[in-house]
Design a protein that fits this description.
Elements lengths: L8 E5 L2 H9 L11 H9 L4 E5 H8 L26 H4 L3 H7 L5 E3 L17 H4 L7 E7 L2 E2 L1 H10 L6 E6 L1 E2 L3 H6 L6 E5 L13 E6 L4 E6 L5 H5 L4 E4 L20 H10 L7 H8 L9 E5 L2 E3 L5 H12 L12 E4 L14 H9 L17 E4 L3 H5 L15 H5 L7 E2 L16 E6 L5 E8 L5 H4 L1 E4 L6 E5 L3 E6 L1 H4 L5 E2 L31 H8 L4
Parallel strand pairs: 4-6, 5-7, 6-8, 14-15, 15-16
Antiparallel strand pairs: 1-2, 3-11, 4-9, 9-10, 10-11, 12-21, 13-20, 14-17, 17-18, 18-21, 18-22, 19-20
């Protein structure tokens, strides 16, 4: 399906007393810094069995000799002081100014623990910064995510002074049994719901957070990161942070929507969950003025959809109206896809990739979409090689965020337009990408027509595939997963035809800093895409 590996599990045996001590007592911030020997002690002396993601165990193993990262992986002490975020300690109390300086894009990348150079970048954002007091008096939060590491998440609220604040949590995987903790009245401030999709290939894979403030305002964050420590310290992630959307004024008779339809789309996305726990958030959003939103919200939700309101067909409908390309042959401008996993795309590129996905992403307002099949649109796919992973900060351990399987790859060897993962310009070549982006750039690599940051990997499950609907003349789009992204179009962000992606003195508008290097570098003849089997075959004896 193109999601993170969800079928791999480890079983840990952890005493109830340790769960309580490290998560819910004053010293629970130490929970995320258990060393491998202590993990082993918990396993050997356990009495309570629970399932947890394989990635949870790997965060402990990554600190062992098996990892090849720098000494910064080891902390000097285990107390709360050692948990102070390396980025936030420099921006504490001034994150609001940092967001202002990031206008008009407000897009960031996560810090990399092993590279202190990323900690001081203006375009780096850590999770505690989202909770900084300068952003407003926080009253409650909503997190819709795929994987949740509860101890780590609660630690973020603890160190930023928000312990006990209300949290609504929709998730697919969590390293704790939240229902059991509820029964023991250990998490009275958390409303939670585990999302289970009917289809085995469908997942609640979207990653959206919302923060409500005492003055009634709201902030929306769309990102590629799970709510777990490794995602925010080891991997390259993308984060978009909205402005603080205020309450509508009493004399405001508008619906509070933006030119990008952001409010309507995010309401549609929330209502699709059909969850009672979201009703109060829907009410909050309806009272807020979203007119400042300068991006489009691009959601996917499971179902057989006749309307073009979800997945790649919704993206296509927007690009047809607003994406600008210079007059001439539209194939001059290549499409770039960059993701952390690939789904099964079919027996040839004509089955889905070209006939549906690339066709949708090729849409623009300057030519007839019905003639797009006449052009061969260049398509470039950025995905790490085996060498990329082996030379990363933590070696093969970092490959766990890249879940393309060798079995799937062998069925689609026609897929050859692979591009190396390189991000020297942002100091993240050695930090494996969990970020997912799609864009269209000029042949000279100086301009960009549009840019999409999303949770959606390159898969039919995430974007949808064409199907015949019973009793309907038109075909529908069958989607299996929840996904969420934000689309940047120059018309709404910089009031120009294209984004500048190369900083020059005569630039009339801010330049867009891409999360990968240009020009692109193709795979060498001996390069192969990383597959999860490489890790499992190499380290299977550990499990």
């Amino acid at each position: 399906c193109g999601c993170e590996g969800t079928s791999v599990r480890m079983r840990f045996a952890v005493p109830v007393s340790y769960i309580h001590t490290f998560i819910f007592e004053p010293v629970w911030v130490r929970y995320t810094y258990l060393n491998p020997m202590f993990i082993r002690f918990l396993i050997l002396r356990s009495s309570l069995i629970f399932d947890t993601c394989l990635s949870f165990s790997l965060s402990a193993l990554a600190t062992s000799k098996m990892a090849s990262g720098s000494k910064s992986l080891k902390r000097k002490s285990n107390g709360p002081d050692s948990y102070t975020d390396e980025v936030w300690k420099r921006t504490k109390g001034t994150v609001d100014k940092k967001l202002e300086r990031a206008e008009p894009f407000r897009i960031f990348m996560s810090p990399i623990e092993c590279d202190p150079g990323t900690h001081i970048e203006e375009s780096t954002l850590s999770f505690p910064e989202l909770l900084d007091q300068s952003l407003g008096e926080l009253t409650e939060s909503l997190h819709i995510n795929f994987v949740v590491e509860l101890g780590w998440l609660l630690a973020q609220y603890f160190i930023t002074g928000h312990r006990g604040k209300k949290i609504t949590l929709l998730y697919e995987q969590c390293d704790e049994n939240l229902i059991e903790l509820d029964l023991k009245k250990k998490i009275p401030h958390i409303k939670h719901k585990k999302i289970i999709n009917a289809n085995a290939f469908g997942h609640q894979h979207s990653k959206v957070s919302m923060f409500a403030y005492a003055d009634g305002s709201l902030r929306v964050v769309v990102m590629s990161a799970n709510l777990r420590e490794d995602d925010w310290t080891k991997f390259t992630q993308g984060i978009w942070v909205s402005p603080k959307f205020p309450l509508k004024k009493e004399d405001n008779t508008s619906d509070g929507n933006s030119k990008t339809n952001f409010k309507i789309d995010i309401l549609r996305y929330l209502k699709s969950f059909d969850e009672q726990s979201l009703s109060q958030w829907i009410e909050k959003i309806e009272k807020v003025d979203f007119s400042q939103a300068n991006v489009f919200f691009i959601p996917s939700v499971p179902g057989k959809h006749q309307e073009q309101l979800w997945g790649h067909l919704y993206l296509k409908s927007i690009l047809e109206k607003y994406a600008y390309l210079p007059m001439g042959v539209p194939s001059d401008w290549p499409i770039i896809a960059q993701c952390s996993s690939l789904g099964s795309l079919g027996t040839s590129d004509k089955e889905w990739l070209k006939s549906e996905f690339i066709k949708s992403l090729s849409a623009a307002n300057c030519y007839d979409p019905s003639k797009i099949d006449k052009y061969e649109i260049p398509f470039n796919l950025i995905y790490p090689t085996i060498k990329n992973v082996l030379t990363s900060w933590n070696g093969p351990m970092d490959g766990m965020c890249l879940t393309y399987s060798n079995q799937t790859h062998q069925k689609q060897l026609w897929l050859k337009e692979f591009i190396l993962w390189q991000c020297h310009s942002r100091k993240r070549t050695k930090a494996m990408p969990h970020i997912k982006t799609y864009c269209r750039i000029s042949p000279c690599c100086t301009k960009m027509s549009w840019f999409l940051l999303t949770s959606a990997n390159l898969s039919k499950a995430a974007w949808g595939r064409r199907i015949n609907l019973k009793g309907q003349k038109d075909q529908g789009n069958y989607i299996m997963a929840q996904e969420a992204g934000v689309l940047f179009l120059p018309k709404f962000v910089t009031e120009s035809h294209t984004f500048s992606i190369f900083e020059t003195e005569d630039s009339k508008s801010p330049y867009f800093s891409l999360p990968f290097d240009l020009p692109l570098t193709k795979y060498d003849i001996n390069d192969c895409p990383w597959s999860i089997q490489f890790f499992l075959n190499k380290y299977n004896h550990f499990f």
